[in-house]
Q: What sequence folds into this?
């Protein structure tokens, strides 16, 4: 090698050494990790919070990740958890580049020089079947620039994350199975409490946050006695308080979780648990949905004591402050949740009267036959998301905690032109400031000055809540607690105060819940409108 080449090589190595020396390093009980500096924010990616759940560890509660030697490179995301490949065009489709069973990683964005900063833990959505913390829309840099340590997490998905089986329950010291993805989320929160101080975070000020299946996960965390003390605040975006399979008992039209698992094993031609554990993870992931398996948490008396509605009615949920809300166009991008359009206004009205009896007039006032296209979309929106948001706000208020209700009704030109005004998850690019990093088929967002101002306002409310427990935004309306006046913020073209966003909606679905819960044979969320079975007779369950 010539002197010139040797000199260049030495200079290059020296430059790399200087660059590495300037990168942030944290020292944790598990070992040291070197992150990156991006626009003044320290970023650590792909940190393992639990051991890889492979082989005999598949379908077991997570255990802490083993320690490592040397300085770990924390500049790249870890693998996403296994999930099916998208089979249809979707604005949400953004398949991860790498998937593995070794996927229990988290990522941290933290302000440079942070000390005792509040912490926000983000749980991604995806129907408990897909999604990953590495999705570009979930970049935490803007929160870190506002003084918040943001953590995003992976958790086991699909059958690998939620399968219940008699054999799995038999080998468990608690005699339960399922809920592994939910237990992963709790293990991640424990990791955060143990380690976040090293990143400048305050382990006593943790806000757990999620949207869609992430919002459902936050409901489960609020309800689970095993999650007590792991967080002090919660934000729920488009969550849904659905009826949930119980471990061994058929209730509310839901087959027992163990029976669902046994049926899946049979369809996968797995003769026993050992055969299931020997199967390739990607094969299980791809075949489970085709076999009709849907992942949900399990009411097992241990991780989840009882149905979510019962936990909140009894005041047994975590008593923490919450903002909670939903989007006006939830179902516009989730049309598989809407019933088929009726043949005519007359057939719609007749079907509603047949199914809802004395509640039909209330139903038709909310969802009139004269506006069928909108009524067909609005009913499942309210039954799943609107009722849940108001119910959480009502129950947290009754438990003596501040609750803040919102309705996201903000559109942008490309979405509105596609009939997707304020669609499911459309608030996320505004909150994270990632309109330029949405999935490939997402309607194109142009961040005009007014759009940037709107994004800054909604982010201000979130940042304020994470920091103080009260959402506020400079120059914007005060977000009043829900309370007895049913106060809320409407995030339309601009934030506006309001009260009682949809009069009569909550009361209607509470009555539907009352009747179905008393009867015990029908889910209260999935059978809506013209596809609903006839409601049972009135029950005295108030």
A:
């Amino acid at each position: 090698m010539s002197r010139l080449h040797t000199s260049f090589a030495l200079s290059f190595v020296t430059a790399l050494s200087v660059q590495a020396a300037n990168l942030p390093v944290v020292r944790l009980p598990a070992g040291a990790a070197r992150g990156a500096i991006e626009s003044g924010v320290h970023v650590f990616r792909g940190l393992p919070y639990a051991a890889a759940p492979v082989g005999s560890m598949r379908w077991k509660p997570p255990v802490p990740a083993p320690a490592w030697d040397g300085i770990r490179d924390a500049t790249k995301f870890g693998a996403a958890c296994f999930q099916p490949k998208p089979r249809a065009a979707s604005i949400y489709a953004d398949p991860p580049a790498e998937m593995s069973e070794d996927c229990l990683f988290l990522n941290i964005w933290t302000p440079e020089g942070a000390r005792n900063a509040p912490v926000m833990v983000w749980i991604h959505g995806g129907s408990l079947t897909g999604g990953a913390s590495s999705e570009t829309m979930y970049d935490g840099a803007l929160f870190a620039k506002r003084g918040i340590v943001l953590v995003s997490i992976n958790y086991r998905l699909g059958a690998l994350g939620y399968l219940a089986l008699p054999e799995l329950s038999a080998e468990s010291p608690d005699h339960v199975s399922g809920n592994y993805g939910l237990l992963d989320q709790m293990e991640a929160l424990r990791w955060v409490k143990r380690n976040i101080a090293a990143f400048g975070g305050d382990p006593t000020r943790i806000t757990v946050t999620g949207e869609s299946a992430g919002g459902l996960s936050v409901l489960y965390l609020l309800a689970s006695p095993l999650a007590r003390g792991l967080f002090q605040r919660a934000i729920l975006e488009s969550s849904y308080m659905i009826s949930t399979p119980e471990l061994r008992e058929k209730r509310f039209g839901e087959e027992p979780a163990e029976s669902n698992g046994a049926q899946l094993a049979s369809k996968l031609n797995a003769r026993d648990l050992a055969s299931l554990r020997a199967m390739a993870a990607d094969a299980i992931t791809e075949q489970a949905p085709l076999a009709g398996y849907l992942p949900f948490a399990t009411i097992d008396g241990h991780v989840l004591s009882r149905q979510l509605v019962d936990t909140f009615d009894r005041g047994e949920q975590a008593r923490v402050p919450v903002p909670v809300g939903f989007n006006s166009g939830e179902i516009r991008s989730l049309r598989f949740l809407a019933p088929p359009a009726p043949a005519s206004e007359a057939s719609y009205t007749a079907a509603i009267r047949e199914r809802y009896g004395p509640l039909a007039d209330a139903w038709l006032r909310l969802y009139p036959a004269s506006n069928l296209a909108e009524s067909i979309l609005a009913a499942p929106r309210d039954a799943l998301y609107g009722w849940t948001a108001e119910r959480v706000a009502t129950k947290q208020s009754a438990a003596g905690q501040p609750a803040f209700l919102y309705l996201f009704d903000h559109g942008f030109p490309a979405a509105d032109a596609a009939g997707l005004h304020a669609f499911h998850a459309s608030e996320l690019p505004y909150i994270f400031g990632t309109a330029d990093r949405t999935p490939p088929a997402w309607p194109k967002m142009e961040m005009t000055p007014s759009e940037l101002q709107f994004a800054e306002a909604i982010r201000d409310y979130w940042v304020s809540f994470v920091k103080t427990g009260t959402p506020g935004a400079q120059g914007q309306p005060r977000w009043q607690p829900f309370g007895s006046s049913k106060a809320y913020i409407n995030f339309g073209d601009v934030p506006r105060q309001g009260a009682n966003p949809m009069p009569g909606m909550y009361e209607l679905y509470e009555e539907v819940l009352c009747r179905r819960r008393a009867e015990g044979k029908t889910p209260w969320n999935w059978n809506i409108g013209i596809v609903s079975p006839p409601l049972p007779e009135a029950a005295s369950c108030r």
